[in-house]
């Protein structure tokens, strides 16, 4: 089963009038992974599509472009498909099969037509997570393993923000048109991601939190630096972060997250740091 929902986003001023439920319905995609389903979300934030795809006995094909107005989903788009489960899976793009171990990401270039996802073991299915954005040029499809990703360490244990970012879809690792995608892991005992926070007015971003115990939550902060709000987020929930919003969080237990971005450029360092003492 493939279902699509839409998120429209809004302006910074709107969040003043939004209740917790309003914020959640606009900026949070809950429960993206369901066995046997593809749950797709079309956002009006730089037209990013998010998807959670969990094939069990049968493969799931996501190549149909009807919901985005083209014959095939990737006619005018590129994408990254991460396997966030503990089981292996495969993604077959126009007859070429790519095997994804846990934490591998497949880059799918513009022009792919048939895209079929399968799990090696239906009892322990792959959890595929898709970020797809409009693309002006085509780059070759490419599997990026966890070992091939560029790892960067940030933070300090003493500030509870020690973490490793792995950049997968990134100019130094695997070229794309405008998509950037990676995975951040917190060290045991560290709870803060993206601390100190930043803004990037030229890119939107989506965070998908995963690998959390069912009872744990991340308190994700969003909004303008001087007017923040929070979203309480569980495993398998994705936060949409408009270009005007900070995006950072603290977890009540271990967690990891996938970040995906698109916008005007691919310069990861094109950010404006926000000193913590400016947050309100
Ligand atoms: O923990 C972090 O710091 C991140 O993972 C930051 C994200 O990559 C990000 O927000 C990029 O803009």
Automatic annotation (TrEMBL):
<keyword id="KW-0862">Zinc</keyword>
<dbReference type="InterPro" id="IPR021120">
    <property type="entry name" value="KduI/IolB_isomerase"/>
</dbReference>
<keyword id="KW-0479">Metal-binding</keyword>
<dbReference type="GO" id="GO:0008697">
    <property type="term" value="F:4-deoxy-L-threo-5-hexosulose-uronate ketol-isomerase activity"/>
</dbReference>
<dbReference type="GO" id="GO:0008270">
    <property type="term" value="F:zinc ion binding"/>
</dbReference>
<dbReference type="Pfam" id="PF04962">
    <property type="entry name" value="KduI"/>
</dbReference>
<feature type="binding site">
    <location>
        <position position="205"/>
    </location>
    <ligand>
        <name>Zn(2+)</name>
    </ligand>
</feature>
<keyword id="KW-0413">Isomerase</keyword>
<comment type="pathway">
    <text>Glycan metabolism; pectin degradation; 2-dehydro-3-deoxy-D-gluconate from pectin: step 4/5.</text>
</comment>
<dbReference type="GO" id="GO:0042840">
    <property type="term" value="P:D-glucuronate catabolic process"/>
</dbReference>
<dbReference type="InterPro" id="IPR011051">
    <property type="entry name" value="RmlC_Cupin_sf"/>
</dbReference>
<dbReference type="InterPro" id="IPR027449">
    <property type="entry name" value="KduI_N"/>
</dbReference>
<feature type="binding site">
    <location>
        <position position="200"/>
    </location>
    <ligand>
        <name>Zn(2+)</name>
    </ligand>
</feature>
<dbReference type="GO" id="GO:0019698">
    <property type="term" value="P:D-galacturonate catabolic process"/>
</dbReference>
<feature type="binding site">
    <location>
        <position position="247"/>
    </location>
    <ligand>
        <name>Zn(2+)</name>
    </ligand>
</feature>
<comment type="function">
    <text>Catalyzes the isomerization of 5-dehydro-4-deoxy-D-glucuronate to 3-deoxy-D-glycero-2,5-hexodiulosonate.</text>
</comment>
<dbReference type="InterPro" id="IPR007045">
    <property type="entry name" value="KduI"/>
</dbReference>
<comment type="similarity">
    <text>Belongs to the KduI family.</text>
</comment>
<dbReference type="InterPro" id="IPR014710">
    <property type="entry name" value="RmlC-like_jellyroll"/>
</dbReference>
<feature type="binding site">
    <location>
        <position position="198"/>
    </location>
    <ligand>
        <name>Zn(2+)</name>
    </ligand>
</feature>
<dbReference type="GO" id="GO:0045490">
    <property type="term" value="P:pectin catabolic process"/>
</dbReference>
<protein>
    <recommendedName>
        <fullName>4-deoxy-L-threo-5-hexosulose-uronate ketol-isomerase</fullName>
        <ecNumber>5.3.1.17</ecNumber>
    </recommendedName>
</protein>
């Amino acid at each position: 089963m493939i279902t699509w929902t839409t998120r429209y986003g809004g302006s910074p001023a709107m969040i003043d009038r939004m209740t917790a439920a309003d914020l959640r319905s606009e900026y949070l995609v809950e429960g993206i992974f369901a066995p046997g389903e593809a749950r797709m979300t079309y956002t009006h934030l730089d037209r990013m599509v998010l998807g959670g795809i969990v094939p069990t006995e049968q493969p799931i094909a996501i190549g149909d472009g009807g919901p985005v107005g083209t014959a095939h989903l990737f006619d005018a788009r590129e994408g990254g498909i991460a396997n966030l489960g503990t089981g292996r899976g495969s993604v077959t793009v126009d007859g070429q099969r790519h095997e994804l171990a846990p934490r591998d990401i497949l880059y799918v270039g513009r022009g792919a037509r048939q895209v079929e996802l399968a799990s090696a073991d239906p009892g322990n299915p792959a959890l595929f997570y898709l970020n797809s954005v409009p693309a002006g040029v085509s780059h070759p499809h490419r599997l990026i393993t966890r070992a091939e990703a560029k790892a960067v360490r940030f933070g300090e244990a003493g500030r509870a923000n020690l973490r490793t970012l792995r950049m997968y879809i990134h100019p130094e690792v695997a070229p794309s048109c405008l998509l950037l995608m990676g995975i951040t892991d917190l060290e045991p005992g560290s709870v803060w991601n993206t601390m100190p926070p930043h803004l990037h007015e030229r890119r939107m971003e989506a965070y998908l939190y995963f690998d959390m115990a069912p009872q744990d939550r991340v308190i994700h902060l969003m909004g303008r630096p001087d007017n923040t709000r929070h979203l309480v987020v569980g495993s398998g929930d994705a936060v949409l972060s408009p270009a005007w919003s900070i995006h950072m969080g603290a977890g009540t237990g271990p967690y990891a997250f996938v970040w995906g971005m698109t916008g005007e450029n691919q310069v990861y360092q094109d950010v404006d740091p926000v000193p913590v003492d400016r947050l309100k």
